[in-house]
Design a protein that fits this description.
By secondary structure, the chain is α/β, with parallel strands linked by helices. It folds into two domains: 5-26 and 33-81, no CATH class; 142-452, 3-Layer(aba) Sandwich (Rossmann fold). The chain is 35% helix and 19% strand. Helix 10 runs parallel beside helix 19 (436-442).
Length: 453
């Protein structure tokens, strides 16, 4: 009989045995036309197969048999009367559903088999004592880890892609403010340096770019004709990107050394050799990063010690930080019945966790800036507290302005006015590239300069 899978499926479907089926095949050159007698459909349920006497085997020939007997025909009834009771089983009948004891569960927890156990013996065992030649692994605190992960995972984009940012006007304005700050306070300090490079128009001076990020100020230090720059940041991936940006600078550049270090918990001497720190800095720059140090008084003091210890007398400390007065004023303006302590606009948002408790250190809020910062924890820097602490390290303020005021006092400056056009803060007609939301976001920062005495 030719193999017919459809016929076999029909004949062996679990139907009642009273139904019969006549099967016929069309003639072929090899086989003449013939009919097969009506066949009763075999029950194929597990109860009938297992309780047959003698036991039936689950083979194709067995399923195709047509000489069924009464016992199999009565399988639906047998299913209710007979129980599954194998004759040659190995394990006791009551062991299948018996729960494991606690000792057994402990034994099999994490068990991988004898082969895996033998293989594990060949692996190098983890030393119980720390290696004295290796520095201990440092576990980052929760907030620090969030900040590091954020800046490490943000991609470094080219100049062309940066121009397509939805807040390109704000980014250009912030860059312009930094350029004004560096020109007004860093250039004179570098010009007065005793560190002089070689060649015509020799570069001069040494800079510590603390919190260098992805190297956004490398071009500014090249234009300042610095002789040497030490750049450090807590985010190692960002440090690598800053190094790449320095390597791609066009024209004469400065000597540069890059390192990944948490400058709020460790001294600079952990990242740079004594030879690198032997010549003092003329300028220390901290742009949009110093506020992270104000998580605790210990971190703030470690940061100030790193700024001052290797800065020469007469040297300059410049930076940009959030405007604490404005942030706290906006916090007070949040309605009492508001669902959360959030304010801002489409460009930036700030969310505080507490309206009443306002500590000098660790006063945390969450900051979002479109296409730049994705909800990271930051800390309020109260200006008077900062000034008092800085005085303990010989640092005294010489400049402090909100970003809006930096614009007002320098937009008609002979150098900084045209610079605004070149940096695309405004066009040739004086029209700003920022909308109202970006302009509001710009003023959540202040620029400052200190002198070491």
């Amino acid at each position: 009989m030719p193999f017919d899978p459809v016929r076999d499926a029909v004949l062996n479907s679990p139907q009642t045995p009273s139904q019969v089926l006549s099967v016929s095949h069309p003639p072929t050159p090899q086989t003449p036309a013939r009919s097969i007698a009506p066949l009763a459909r075999r029950p194929t349920d597990l109860a009938a197969l297992l309780n047959a006497d003698p036991p039936r085997t689950s083979t194709l020939a067995h399923l195709l048999r047509t000489d069924d007997d009464d016992r199999l025909a009565a399988a639906p009834a047998l299913r209710k009367l007979l129980k599954y009771s194998p004759r040659n089983r190995i394990s006791p009948a009551d062991s299948i559903l018996k729960p494991m004891s606690q000792a057994e569960m402990n034994m099999y927890k994490g068990y991988q088999g004898h082969g895996a156990a033998r293989l594990a013996k060949r692996k190098r065992e983890t030393p119980t004592e720390p290696d004295p030649d290796q520095p201990p692994a440092k576990k980052l605190a929760t907030d620090v880890a969030v900040v590091v992960d954020h800046y490490n995972t943000r991609p470094e984009v080219g100049v062309a892609q940066r121009e397509t940012s939805p807040i390109i006007g704000l980014k250009s304005f912030n860059n312009w403010v930094k350029s004004v700050l560096i020109t007004r306070f860093a250039h004179p300090a570098l010009a007065a340096s005793k560190l002089v490079g070689r060649g015509p128009r020799a570069p001069r001076g040494k800079v510590l770019d603390m919190g260098c990020g992805k190297g956004g100020d490398m071009t500014k230090w090249a234009k300042a004709r610095a002789a040497e720059v030490l750049a450090v940041d807590i985010a190692a991936v960002s440090v690598d990107q800053a190094r790449s940006r320095w390597q791609q600078l066009r024209g004469p550049s400065f000597d540069a050394t890059f390192a990944a270090l948490d400058c709020y918990t460790d001294p600079l001497s952990k990242a740079f050799s004594p030879a690198k720190l032997a010549t003092p800095f003329d300028v220390v720059s901290m742009q949009f990063c110093m506020h992270y140090a104000f998580e605790s008084v210990q971190k703030a003091r470690c940061m100030l010690d790193n700024v001052s210890r290797w800065l020469r007398p007469g040297g300059t400390f410049i930076g940009t930080i959030p405007n604490a007065d404005q942030l706290l004023q906006n916090l007070e303006g949040v309605p009492p019945d508001a669902p959360d302590l959030t304010f801002g606009n489409d460009v930036y948002k700030i969310r505080f966790e507490d309206r009443v408790h306002k500590p000098l250190f660790g006063h945390k809020y969450w900051f979002y800036l479109q296409d730049a910062v994705e909800n990271v924890p930051e800390y309020i820097v109260k200006w008077d507290n900062f000034v008092q602490m800085a005085a303990d390290y010989g640092l005294h303020p010489v400049y402090k302005e909100e970003f809006h005021d930096v614009f007002s006092e320098n937009r008609e400056h002979a150098e900084f006015g045209p610079l605004m056009v070149r940096m695309k803060v405004v066009d040739a007609n004086g029209e700003s590239a920022m909308d109202e939301d970006q302009w509001e976001a710009a003023n959540i920062y202040i620029a400052f300069a200190f002198e070491k005495r």
